[in-house]
Design goal:
266 residues, single chain, Rossmann fold, alpha/beta
């Protein structure tokens, strides 16, 4: 038996690479196979998106689509864990730099970089290619766009946001629980919310939000039993997680009345 054959077997869902996940009762060999057969769309490859992508790749999700319009800059390095000085000097687009690193981390999966802004013109096509979407964006306008596209297509997605040392996470399962607009009817007016550029972000807070998002994503992908619909409010500096039970609004404009105004051309 050749060493290549040994490496191929090790990388299979039941192989040595994923042994710790496969032996975890919550996932098992069947769950690991479901991950290998799944496609996840990571929208945004910044502080939380780069950590999401790394964890999903290491977990053995079979195909990752990474979308972002930005390139790697020096101030990204403390919080965006997939990048290094080489990427800064090369002015590398984030999806391409992330894909290069992830292929080295796990050559047994497929990585597709998409260097583009996320708009109403391309969000539906990107969502159609995935089983699940994880939010790595940094503004509510794009998140409402994701919410409209995911609810319209019936695709689950996991919202996550971080600012300073605080964060929030919500797993959205269209038709089963609340969507983002059940909780927040409209995006805050431009300039009303502080940004990471002005307010800062702790790298550990970004990774913590990403970890919870990936855990929620894995549960959905493997079909784990659902345990309510909670908005998780995180304070890493204080060391607390506060889950708040949420409910679907029957008259929600998006998931109730199915009006997808954020998908309309600008």
């Amino acid at each position: 038996m050749t060493s290549d054959n040994n490496e191929d077997k090790a990388a299979r869902p039941g192989g040595a690479r994923y042994a710790r996940h496969s032996s975890l009762g919550l996932i098992g060999a069947a769950g690991q196979l479901k991950l290998a057969e799944s496609t996840v769309l990571v929208l945004g490859c910044g502080s939380i998106g780069s950590a999401q992508a790394m964890l999903l790749a290491r977990a053995g999700v079979g195909r990752l689509i990474l979308a972002d319009r930005d390139y790697v800059q020096l101030y990204n390095l403390p919080t965006q864990i997939l990048y290094d000085d080489y990427d800064v000097k090369a002015r590398a687009p984030k999806p391409e730099a992330a894909a290069r690193r992830l292929r080295a981390i796990n050559p047994g999966i497929t990585i597709e970089p998409v260097c583009a802004d996320i708009t109403s013109a391309n969000i539906a096509e990107l969502a159609a290619r995935a089983d699940l979407i994880v939010d790595g964006t940094d503004n509510f306008e794009t998140r409402f766009l994701i919410n409209d596209a995911a609810v319209k297509a019936g695709k689950p997605w996991v919202y996550g946001g971080v600012l300073g040392t605080d964060g929030m996470v919500l797993a959205v399962r269209p038709g089963q629980g609340p969507c983002l607009r059940c909780l927040f009817d409209l995006p805050p007016a431009e300039g009303r919310l502080p940004t990471c550029d002005a307010f800062g972000v702790l790298n550990a807070a970004a990774v913590w939000v990403s970890c919870l998002q990936v855990a929620e994503a894995i549960k959905i992908l493997i079909g784990a039993p659902q345990t309510g619909h909670k908005l998780h409010i995180l304070d890493i500096w204080g060391g607390t997680v506060s889950p708040v039970e949420t409910e679907r609004k029957p008259d929600c404009e998006c998931c109730g009345r199915r009006i997808f105004k954020f998908l309309e051309p600008a």
